[in-house]
Design goal:
It is a single chain. This protein is α+β, with helices and mostly antiparallel strands and 261 residues long. It has a single domain, classed as CNF1/YfiH-like putative cysteine hydrolases, CATH 3.60.140. It contains 6 helices and 15 strands. The protein has a 6-stranded mixed β-sheet with strand order 1-2-3-15-7-4. Strands 5-6-9-8-10-14 form a 6-stranded mixed β-sheet. Strands 11-13-12 form a 3-stranded antiparallel β-sheet. Strand 12 and strand 13 form a beta hairpin. Bound molecules: zinc ion (ZN). The site of zinc ion has 6 residues, from loops.
Length: 261
């Protein structure tokens, strides 16, 4: 995964997705927005306490720099669910222009020029492209979503829509690394032993990125078509918002993906 400066913003992009000329994608950093304080500066979620005017301005900046249609910007309503929804014609713009009335942690669309957003600040953002059916997806996976397999459910939905797993490409963005993600046994022990390291006092270091990698791989996607950023949001709090690194008060990053004509 490499960083690209685009106008005033800086995005991490994966070669797994940037090999496709019709796919615009990236994982935002803090750089280039107008939000202040803990939200400084490119904070993307309207539901994390930031000034809504600043969030809308940041949406405009992101869409402008990537030449995307802000009127079609569509996003999740993240509540740690395992709900994956398909964005059809009527739903274009939901999550930004109009609200979801229930929690949706992953979106899929087969429409072109519809940018999909997912938000994160330590949680795992995943972007996908199913080349054969022309569909993109944006997924938010915290530990609950990871445990309930939302990444896998998103791939399964793409397969239901007709995709061959060999034609699915996935990029897992910056998230809290195993280096920093300390959890208690009640969380860690929900996962297989290979995903955590045991520490004293019922503490465990959990690797959520790797769990998501395996969830996707186990759907039949080729390993070389999945990228794992390996970048820890907490270790790199200067560049990324980090829920843990900022004691629970932080802005949010976005994963964004859009299929062009
Ligand atoms: Zn770290």
């Amino acid at each position: 995964m490499c960083i690209t400066e685009i106008g005033t913003i800086a995005l991490y992009q994966s070669s797994v997705l940037s090999q496709f000329e019709n796919i615009v994608h990236g994982f935002t950093t803090r750089k280039g927005g107008v939000s202040k304080g803990a939200y400084e500066s490119l904070s993307m979620s309207p539901r994390r306490g930031d000034d809504i005017e600043c969030v809308h301005k940041n949406e405009e900046i992101l869409c402008r720099e990537l030449s995307l249609d802000i009127k079609k910007l569509t996003s999740t309503r993240q509540e740690h669910t395992d709900t994956v929804e398909i964005i059809d014609e009527e739903r274009i713009g939901i999550g930004v222009k109009t609200p979801w009335d229930y929690g949706v942690d992953a979106c899929i669309t087969t429409h072109k020029n519809v940018p999909l957003l997912c938000y994160s600040a330590d949680c795992v953002p995943v972007l996908m492209y199913a080349q054969d059916i022309g569909a993109v997806a944006a997924v938010h996976a915290g530990w609950r979503g990871t445990q309930s397999g939302i990444s896998k459910k998103t791939v399964q939905k793409l397969i239901e829509l007709g995709a061959n797993p060999k034609n699915i490409y996935a990029a897992i963005g910056p998230c809290i690394g195993q280096c920093c993600y300390e959890v208690d046994g009640d969380v860690a022990l929900k996962f297989e032993e290979k995903y955590y390291e045991k520490k004293p006092m019922n503490k465990y270091m959990l690797d959520l990125g790797k769990v998501n990698f395996d969830l996707i791989k186990d759907c039949g996607i080729d390993e070389e078509n999945i990228s794992l950023s390996g970048i820890c949001t907490k270790c790199n709090n200067d560049s990324f918002f980090s829920h843990r690194g900022q004691n629970g008060k932080s802005g949010t990053l976005a994963g964004i993906i859009c299929m062009r004509e």
